[in-house]
Amino acid sequence: MAIQTDSCVRCIQNLVEISKLKTHVKQILAALVILPTFAFGQICAAQESYDSELVTAFWSASTEAEIESSKRQLMAQAPDIETLYQWLDAGPAFAQDVALGQQESARVDFDGTRYPFVYLIPETYDATRSYPVEFMLHGGVSRPEWRPGGEWWRRGYDSLKKEDRIVVVPAAWNAAFWWFENQADNLPSILRELKQTYNIDDNRVTLSGVSDGGTGAYFFAFKQSTEWAAFLPYIGHPGVLRNPQSGPGYKLYFENLMSRPLYIVNGENDPLYPVSSIEPFISILQEANIDHVFRAIEDGGHNTNWLPNEQPMIEQFKLDNPRDPFPNQLRWVTDRSDRYNRNLWMRIEELAVEGQPGIMTVSRQGNSFTVTAESVVAFTLLLSPEQVDFSEEVHVVVNGRPLFIGKVEQDMNTLLDWVVRDRDKSLFYTAALSLKVNP
What architecture (CATH level 2) is domain 101-320? Predict the structure, then answer.
């Protein structure tokens, strides 16, 4: 452009006076400025159409009526699915004026059951940055239900307070062990509630537990891992989950532990779960090449006296293991299609025999998905612009046979419905591709 302008100036100098040349050059420069200014104005207009208040209202909506109203307004305002995705990806505007320090609350289930929990918010909380979250599951679950105003609220939680994270301490009791279905619903529900108010780093949410709480951490690792980045079971034992006297007596599938890393600690002299009792389990982890750290505490009992010395390694483990929301390979095993059937962007919808395990592995390369499914009748792939190019065809091969080839339409309802289900800023799906293995 500069060379062309200089050339024009030289030509014009031969034809007009210098004063006229200056006027002409100003006109040329003005014309050159008009085009980018106009384009910039278009960009600004598009940006202004983004209604932060509307996105924030949708994110914080809690009742069905509020959610449906916010959905309708968003879909009416957004010109297309790509724009709606961008708006949601930009995120809500989290309020700075929120409760800080030690807070107490309780979820109330549809049947009226109260699930109390304590949560610790940094006093220096800054709504413009996202915070890791650590759930801490206590031991001794065979106790009476926690009552409002009782011991639960009077406990000292100062030792758990940290300025760099949010800490959540939920409650369990004799009707709500950590590995019961009600807790499988409760813990993610607490997390979703907090995500609507506080700016949380969705990919750095960890689940730690002590004794029965450690066993609870194993439960979520085996059965329901989507929400979590890593599991840290301390002085617990996965064998408890198989015992019908301690609960449902689950079947445990080690393939599911390939999804997230574990940091396991047991004491050599623990009278309940000594190192010797956990070693066969650790051997399987090693043989299966499952990502884990195992710390055997020399002369350790059924306590956490070792924790101060171990803390630096634990913190580094958390830093080193954020959740990958869109890994290129997923594997999952389930014996139920009504729950415990999802791993991030894949979900098993129907089994050949309910109650018998179905196993599924999915590998993705670009828009191509390769699926191996055994005893699985139907499944869903949750698709995101982070994974696939929706302008191109999607290819799905199942057990060596092409099952789907075609373009997949993105859908506003799908996107908004999954946002409500997950309340996870890292898991936005604009399409759900549901397929039958043998159509």
Answer: 3-Layer(aba) Sandwich (3.40)
